[in-house]
Amino acid sequence: MRQLNSDRNGNFAMMTAIVLPVLIGGAGLAIDLGNIMLSQRQLQEATDSAALAVATALADGKVDDTGGKALAKDFVSGQMANTVSAAAASAIKSATNTTITTTTNGTAKSFTVAVSSSANITLTPLMGLLAGNTRTITASSNSASGSGSTKNGLSMEVLVDESGSMAQNTTTVKNTPCLIPLLNGCLLYGPPVYVTKIEALKQAATALFDALDKSDPTPRYVRTGVISYTNGIKGKSAMAWGTSDSRRYVTNMTLTPTGGTDATTAVNTATTAIKKNGYGTDTESVEQMKKNNANSDRVIILMTDGEMTGNSDQWSKTLDQSVRDECAAAKSAGIVIYTVAFMAPENGKSLLRYCASSSANYYEPNTMDGLVAAFASIAETATKSVSRLTN
Question: Can you say how many angstroms the Cα of residue 117 is from the centroid of all Cα atoms in its chain?
Fold first, then answer.
């Protein structure tokens, strides 16, 4: 018995048998906590986006209360459908509830929208034994919007890439030349001629300016400026009322762009031009007050088709971080940033995802039509009379 009592053979196996369930349980707990936190964030982003979308649609007169509630259900379930099963998305849609409050004051209306939802997250089998098979997460968001005479001013800087890669072709065919005409037809066609990226950008900018003018034809609310950049600032149109000066600048941009890419100075210059100070004495606040716009939104649109290379043809981590720092400073100054990665490589996409104020502010078009639609969507979103999250 003394020999048996002092024998240590088999201790490792015994300890492993004792500790293994704890290790497995710990791993399961980590997986479940990570899944719950990710799902919670995704659901919160979905209700945030839904609240903003409904408030914007109400302010624009596109939906009534009933339509707004239906829109919220579709929006939340549609957002979550990217990450959950069809059955789970349907359950989330059923669990989504919306409250809309409308306040009228003369010619102005304001809308308060509250969207809430919940989802059941399936736990790992071991955790299921301890805490049940599912865990319920919830999210709620509130937004406010206005229409009529409550409209805010808007000061927008449009930053466009005018580097050499913008001379490359898109996938959109401009025309197919006829090499051998025959009567009223063509016997032999030549290779197709494609729309270049810079030509697509010009069309997209036109769509942006058209949408801004439609929202503010006078103009009384909207001020715009354009900065084009290569490895530094190539040129700019100073901030001015309406879109005329900005249109003229984009129209006159060369169709044969050259140079590398570095948006650092462009973002810094735009931020300096439109950011607010604490006294209301910054240029844009003063100009907006001249037309009795006590409140004005500040917006930057940052577009590129490439990655930060400077004067070289290789991506620079240092320049990429420099642009990120400028974007962070702009967002800290209260500027909303929309980003457009047009046919861009992964480094360019990653940068613009970071710079965007939210995932909803990031666009990734790969065609000319997609680029035009992205710029038009940004204009429509930016010109809505105050649609903001309030929670």
Answer: 22
**From its phi and psi, is residue 183 left (phi > 0), alpha (psi between -120 and 50) or beta?**
left
Listed residue (55, 114, 115, 123) closest to 80, CA to CA: 115
Residues near 220 by beta carbon (within 8 Å), at least 6 away in sequence: 291, 293
256 & 340 share domain: yes
Residues 133 and 170 in one domain: no
- Pair (101, 81) in one structural domain: yes
pLDDT in tens, 263-296: 999 999 999 999 999 899 999 999 999 999 988 9
The β-bridge relationship of strands 362-363 and 97-105 is unpaired
The three-point CA angle 41-47-51 to 5° equals: 145
Please determine, for residue 117, whether its predicted confidence score (pLDDT) is greater than 80.
Answer: yes
Res 380: pLDDT? 85
Same domain membership, residue 204 and residue 132: no
Q: Model's pTM, two decimal places?
A: 0.64
- The residue with tokens 């503010």 is 216
Q: Which of the listed residues 148, 167, 186 is the one where a domain comes to its end?
A: 148
Least confident of 200-204, 216-220, 257-261: 216-220
| Type of residue found at 308 | M
pLDDT of 23 above 60? no
Q: Are residues 140 and 36 in the same domain?
A: yes
Q: How many domains does the chain have?
A: 2
Tell me the C-alpha distance between 219 and 110, whole Å: 23
Residues in Cβ contact with 286 at an 8 Å cutoff, skipping those fewer than 6 apart: 280
Residue 64 corresponds to which amino acid? Answer: D
Please say whether the beta carbons of 244 and 177 come within 8 A: no
